[in-house]
Write a structure and sequence with these properties.
The protein is mostly helical. Helix content is about 65%, strand content about 0%. It has three helices and no strands. Helix 1 crosses helix 3 and helix 2 packs across helix 3. The longest helix is centred in the middle third of the chain and has 21 residues. The chain starts with 17 loop residues before the first helix and ends with a helix.
Length: about 70
């Protein structure tokens, strides 16, 4: 299977390649911290990640991909 973001080979049991999977896991883990601190919801959190100029490329691409699924 191919990565949903970049068409590289996806890891087994994942929609993402190794690099995008690491970014996805980081996004998921950090969401819990953000949610406790600010009460932000998942979709709003993803929007913040996608528009933040300090967000890394891999994380931004994953956030945008997840947002496109939500639409």
């Amino acid at each position: 299977m191919k990565c949903k973001v970049c068409s590289r080979e996806a890891q087994s049991q994942s929609e993402y390649c190794e690099l995008h999977e690491k970014a996805y896991q980081s996004i998921r883990q950090k969401f819990e911290v953000w949610k406790k601190a600010s009460g932000v919801e998942w979709k709003e959190y993803l929007k913040e990640i996608a528009k933040n100029p300090l967000t890394g490329t891999w994380a931004r691409e994953v956030a945008e991909n997840l947002l496109s699924k939500e639409a």
